[in-house]
Amino acid sequence: MNRLKVNLQKLQIAMANQAFSSKELSEKCGVSQVTITRITKGVQAARPQTIGKIAKALNVPVTEIIETE
Questions:
Q1: What is the pLDDT of residue 64?
Q2: Residue ranges of the alpha helices (H) in 1-69?
Q3: Across residues 10-36, what is the average pLDDT?
Q4: CATH 2.20.25.10 fits 8-64, yes or no
Q5: CA-to-CA distance for 43 and 38, rounded, in angstroms?
Q6: Which of 19, 31, 55, 67 would suit a FRET pair with 44, their CA atoms being 20 to 30 Å apart?
């Protein structure tokens, strides 16, 4: 399964801009808090669908929060 690597610093900035905790982001995007925590700590890469939900909840383009190389 294809997974995307999250840019942790950009994700934290986007969360800060919305004043979201991991719990609030989880509730807003409908992804489990465990998954959000694992992604924000860099323990787990994310499915494209999950990244899409997170980006939508944070009101940023997907490319803003993933590693692009």
A1: 95
A2: 8-18, 22-29, 33-40, 48-58
A3: 96
A4: no
A5: 5
A6: 19
